Each structure stands twice: as structure tokens, then as C-alpha cells.
Amino acid sequence: MIKVKSKFVAIFWMMLILVACSKSPKNNNENLFGTYDQAVMLENIANQILLSDITSFQGNTKENLVIVENFTGNPTFATLKAAQDYFKILSQNWAKVAPFNFGPMQTELIAANIDTWPAKPVKMETAVANQIGATGVGADTKGLKGLEYLLFDKNGDAEVLVKYTTATDAVARKAFLNSVSTELVAQATNLNNAWTKGYFTSFINAKGNDVSSSLSQTVNGIALYLDEIKNMKVANPIGIGVKVNDNKSHPDIIEYTLAEQSLEVMRANVLVMKSVFNGGSGQGIDDLLDYVKAQKDGKNLSVVVGAQFDEVIAKIDAVNSPYASAVNNNKQQVQDVFNSLKTLIAYLKVDVANNLGVTITFSDTDGD
Amino acid sequence: MEKASVKTSGYYFSALKNKLSEPIDAASLAFFRILFGCIMLFSQVRFLSKGWVDLFYIQPKFFFKYFGFHWVQALPGNWMYLPWVLMVISLVFIIVGKYYRFAIVVFFFLFSYTELLDLSNYLNHYYLITLLAFAMIFLPMNVSFSLDAKKWQQPATVPRWTLSILRLQIGLVYFFAGVSKIKYDWLIMAQPLKTWLLTCQNIPWVGKFLSMPFTAYVFSWGGMFFDISAPFLLLNKKTRPFEYALIVFFHLVTFWLFYIGVFPIVMIGVALVFFSSAFHRRFLEKYFFWLQPKHNPEKAVYTFTGHKEVFSGLFIVYFLWQFLMPLRYLMYKGNVMWTEQGYRYAWNVMLMEKDAVIYFYVEDKETGERFIEYPKKYLTPLQERMMSTQPDMILQYAHFLAAKYQDQLKHSVAVYADAYASLNAKAGQTFIDPDIDLANQKDSFAPKYWIMPESTDHEFQK
Lengths: 368, 462
Known about the structure:
Chain A is mainly alpha-helical. Chain A contains 15 helices and two strands. Chain A has helices at residues 2-23, 38-73, 77-95, 104-107, 110-114, 121-129, 143-151, 157-165, 170-205, 214-235, 262-278, 285-291, 301-317, 323-329, 331-356, and strands spanning 295-296, 299-300.
């Protein structure tokens, strides 16, 4: 019995040695293994980008509350302008946090509470009329998009001021605006605390590439948010979206219709995803791709994907502002953004996912 | 010389026939019946507890049909739970061996029904379970250690072939799972294992070893030899314990490293069929003695009374089919993992990491207007993932869109796919010919020329 077994084992090892020897000259991997540490990459991404942006967003929600209370305490053109200007800063700030909807941001529905769009004006008017605060309403009746509705009006600032001064429900509206701003501070604080009091460590420790690993969460997060930008922010407005595919222009369904922040926010979204991909000044997903020697068209896949991120940013920059006009009159510019995003998403969902063994999915399965 | 040879083969045929007809302890079949029942009971209860009935069979708005089974329809809403409830009940009857034949028929039909509802849920071990349940309908699995066996004298015997059929079926799975690994990607590129093992580097103690490319080659080649040799080493009494220990180790490692659900449990369990009847009896007498009717010499002796010729004929055809199905891919050009023509029912297990994205464009043939269609509009994430990499499913979805738009626009339409895929860490490329109107293509066993040829650039990427 031992004889049979040892023969089998000997043949097996001979085959292995043959394979290993025949492939070693081409396969130049010797000095690669051991040089890459996923923990360094995850810590860099978490520290330099994710948590840093969350903390900064939290700070800005506090500042926003002060400015909004200043406006509701003394509604003038100047205080309204200050609140509107700060809203733009805040939306830019959130643009850097939004793409990474995993961990506490997802499980505690923080992203949903901060950024469900479109917000429902009718529901907000009902909340004002019934004097219900932001904690007592649904996600589509508050958050950043709710704040936008409360601070801007398509007919100009005078219309906004009327609502907060002479209108019969001015007092209730001021209270609702304050409560929406207060709720934003609470949500951002909750997110920041969840990260600093545990999730930061969990994120760094969830190594590997399975569905619960931080690598998988990050790649999935980026791919999904790029999808959201492509479908919701770009495709729907020009009639080539999932639900709106009539090939017609729909400037009324762009993001931040009133505050006109669409292009700037989209740009900030893509930029932050690019910085997570390349790790900023530290290690990023691109280093992991180089480590596994992922190639495409004779180049490093990391270079191809990085260039495609730049291409998307260039196409966004090429769209004439305001975005609503471009959607109406320069559809091709928006279509170019769509096409460049489509390519970037394909690279991420197919080439990057395949080379890193990351599954782009949210559903459990039962085997192969 | 020729005469002697004829005589020799006749001799072997007759020896084989005698061997297959010789009586063996029916405890082996009872053992398998109970084991199969328990594993399936666990699997079906797990399926229910994970909420998969809702996710896979109630939520979807569209189901991908199996070729030739377009008529199979899902039950409305929560009625979809009914097959599972009935399956669980039938499995309890199978385990205790009460109304066995009826219970196994019920289980076979219900299990096949739920499998046939949506191609997205195809899994190799589900197919194996369907095949085993089918064979078990015809086999006397209940003449020992069952409530049905009260009428027969114990220990009952059955002809050896009844057990051999189960062994052959399971042996074929291992053998062809090994043969299917003889592929360039698996053996020469060590893919997809190289990718899958790479990020295991952070596992304490063994991570560094696991993530080495050398390990991927060891696992790839070792896995191939292991699978091909498994049935032979299990049949041999001397190598059996070592081989079984290896099977347990192999499946536990895959269970630990990769997410593959109940597959390892099924395989660790069913391989026990290769053990001796004495082993099976010892096990049953220890744990299932309560199912064994008391010895009473006055009871009838069990004899298998089926039409031998009919049974032999049926099983020969069945096993010829089993041999041909895994090899049918050879009739098609190109890499079977890329085209997936002949991929299912062939024991291609864990062979690929394939990712794809796909969009459809529906063109109004009268106006020329093109409408973009995203799969997620009508598909669940799992269905979308499965469809995006499998050409026959892509075709079915294109037909679904064509019918929908034709109905809406009242014009004839063309459907084009914009698909991009990557297989086993090779660079992504166009998957489906974007200029082919899929609405015009019929699904059949003919080669699908509208699948773009896979890039033959097999340069080492890692």
C-alpha cells in the first residue's frame, strides 16, 4: 500500500517540478511576493481618504448648521446667500464621501438619510405644515436634497426669502430647515463615530478578496457608484437611462437642479474614486493590480484604468455649464461623459474584478 | 486467434455479468438513502432559511428557461414555498424509508421542477442531485433499515449492480471533473486558482504559502490528478481510506478557501458509497438500529423483480449519455469556457473566473431609433451576473426584449448586445458580435457564430 502511495506521490511531484521548471524563465514573479501588504493599502485608503473626508464632512455639517441658523434667525439676502454658498461647499464635501457606501454608512442607512434623491417637495411641504421635524420624516423628505429645496427656488432668492419672512408658515419652515440641518450633523457625527470607534480597524483588518473584504467592498462601492453616476446623473437626463430611455432630454431630473452643482459634484465624485484607486500619495488598488501583473493592451491595467478615470474627468470638464442647458442643447457632450463612464465601469467590473478575484455582486450563492 | 479473442471477451462479459448480479448486503443502499436524505434535508432547510426561495423564485420578473423546458412556470407569489415544504416532508419519508418509492418520486419531480424554473440557478451539484434522485427511483433503496422493510427477511440482499450504479454515477463526476481540468488555463496558467489564492496571503501562518504562484500550480495539477484518480482509488480496498481522507481534506480546504456552499458537504457525503457493505451495516446498526425490522425467518426473502433487460438497456443508455455529455464540447470550436457551448452538465467545477458587463440596444426597424436597455431593469443581480457571461442566456434575454418592444412599438425590432468580458485574468474583450441582430438568432445546439472569438493571446500575464 505504501508502495502504491509513494509511487503516486513521486509521479505527482515530478509533474509539478516539470511544470515549475518549464515556466520559471517566463514567469518573473520571484521578487514580487512578500513585497505587497494589503494592510498598508487599506490603512492608506482609510486614513488618507475615506476617514479624512468623513471627518471633514462632519465638521462642515456643523458649520452649515451655524450658517443656516444664522439665516433662519435673520433671513436676509446676505444670510441666504451665505447659506446657499455653504450648501455648495457641503455638497462638494459629501461628493467625496458618497461613493463609498459600505460599512456603517450602508448598514445604518446614513447614505440614504443624507442623500436620497430626488427629494419630495410635497412631502416637505406637508412636514412644514404639520410642524414635523427631520427626525420624524422619511429619507426623501430631508438630507442634502431636502436642504437644497429649502434654500433655493427656481424663481430666485426673493421667492425663498418670502417663504422665510412673510409667508404664514415661515416660522414652521424655519424650524424645519433648522431640523434638517441638525439631522445632517447627527448623521455625519454618527458616521464619523462609527469609523473612529471600530470600523476603521475592521476595515483595515478585513483583508483578502471575499465579498466581505474591504478590497471587495471598495471595488464594488466604486463600480456601483460609477454606475449610479452613469445611470442617474448622466443617462437619465439625456433619455438613455435604466428607467428613462426615450432618447429625449430631461433637464428637470438632473442632480442639484436648483443649486446647479451637478457637474462640480460629479467631478468631485470621480476624483475621489480615482484617488482611492491610485491611493493618492500612498498605496492604492493600482499597486495591487501591478502586484498581480494585470495587463491590458500591452500596458499595466492600472495605467489603463487610471487613464480612463482621467478621460472621464476630461469629458465632464468639456461639458458646458450649466448642466441643464448642456442636457438640452449639447447632448453629445453629455453622451461623451456617458461613453467614457461606460468604458471605465467595464474596466472595473470586468478587468479589475477578474484580476483581483473580486465578485461584483450583492447576492449569496450556493456554489459552482 | 480471432476466435480466442471473442472467447476472451465473452468470458469477461459473463464474469462481469455474474459479478454485477451477485447478492450484496442491502445495507449499502439503505446507507446511501439515509445519507442522501439527510444531506438534502440540510440543504433544503438551509435554502429556505437563507431566504433564497424569495430571492431566486419570487422576486424575479423574468426567468431564464432551460432548452426544451420553456413550459415550466413558477407558482404565483408565496405558493413557491410549497415545493420546498413538500420536499422537506418527502425527505423525512425518504430517510425513514416509509412509502419510499412515492417519496423519492415526489422529491425527484419537485427538485427537478425548482431547478428547471431558472437557468440562472444552475449548479453542478444540483444536477448531480437530480441524476441521483432519478436513479434512486428505480433502485431498491428501502429493503433494509426502513419502515417499508418490515415485510422482508433481514439481512436483505440486493444485486450488486444496484450499488454499482450509484458508485458509477459519483465516480463519473470525479473523473470528468478531472478531465475537464485538462485545459490550458487550468494547467499552464494555473488560473483561476492563481487569482483566487493570491489574496489568501493574509491568512495567518499559511497565507504566504497559499499566495505563491507555485501553490496555484500544485493545487491545479494536484486537483486534476486527484479528481481523475478518485473513483479508482476509492474502488480499491487498500487505497480507499487514504483516498477518502484526501477527499475530506480536499473538500474542506475548498470549503474554507472559496465560497462554494454545500458542494463540499455533498461530495464528502456521497463518496462514502464506495465503502464496504460491512462498513455501511456497522454504521447503520450503531446509529439507525431503530429502523431495522426485527429478524424473523418467516418473512419473505427480498428479490429484485424488475425486467432485467429493460433495466440494463435503460441504464446503458443513461450512462452512455453521461459519458457523452461532458465531452460534447469537443464538437464546438473555441474555448468552452468562453463560448460555454457544451459547458453545463459536464462537471466543469471551479474552472473559471469570468466577468462581464452587458447592455442591449433595441432598434426600431422602421424608424431606426435605438433604445438602450440595462439588464438590471428586469433581472435580479444574480440573474444579471449569470446572463452576462452565458451566451444562450444573453440570447434568451434579447428575445424577451424583442417581444416586449415589438408589443410596445408595434414595429419589428432588432436587438444588439454590447458585451465585454474577461476570462481567467486575460484582458477584457468584446464578447458578443455587436453587429448581429440577436432577435433574428434561434437558440439551438448549432455553433453560435455571433460569439466573438476569444483572443488567442495566451501570453503570461502573471
